[in-house]
Amino acid sequence: MKKIISICTAFSLSLSALFAQSVSSEILEKVRESGELQNVFLNDDEVKLSLVPDTELSKLAISHWDNKEKPRLTTEKLFYLDKKTIGSKENIAENKANSENLSIEDVSKVIRSISTMKGTEYYSNRHKKWETLYHEAYLVDSPENKERIPDDTEGSADGKTLYCMQDDNSFGKCYYSLTYKQRPNEVSVCFDNFESLKFAFITAAKAHNIKINLVAVDEGDYFLVYLMVQAYYPRISMLEEKMIDSFNARVDSIYKWFVKEMGEAAAARTL
Checking CA distances to 188, which of 23, 68, 103, 224 falls within 20 to 30 Å? Predict the structure, then answer.
């Protein structure tokens, strides 16, 4: 009997450790109420990241910038995603049980399903309307060949390095390396441009001067999704304004894509 109690206690403690709250109670209360929190730092601003979950992969995500130049733009945004609300209004009640059972394995597949980013929309502050962010998106076999290959969603994402092309509404064809990490209660990806981004005839960002990090943390009843964009670009007023608007909009559109695909994952459980 004592042995059984000990096993149950150990199991309970392991679950508590797995779903330990990773942000302060104050931040959790705010992000649960508003759905999202954001900080934006420009140029010479002192960067004080305050929304980073206290997890291994979140801490790793904020250390990926290894360029000698300080980013001109740093945006961090924390989202609260209640598992019970994942899915469209039409199927949310029907798929409630399935969405509540969504796990890091589901998240891992979603963030490797790069082809599903095709058609993702964003709100253009310049044009005051919704536009298509990625006209095309898919994995490529290598930075050299750039041959299209299927999404790689089997098994764990941990340790995988993939490469992708995104036909961006603002910058045309953009190529990124994708570095993945996965743990029992969190998964992450870092997008790092391995070729320059162009805006018309201007080099908007040289290779490795854009880093987009996404970390999803399973907190039991909900996910915390932390997104951070860091970018270094020429200090040209017209370009600077576009880059700030463009990448801040991308944070929201990437999250919108993530939520949509998580809803699809929940719906797929009913098939």
Answer: 68
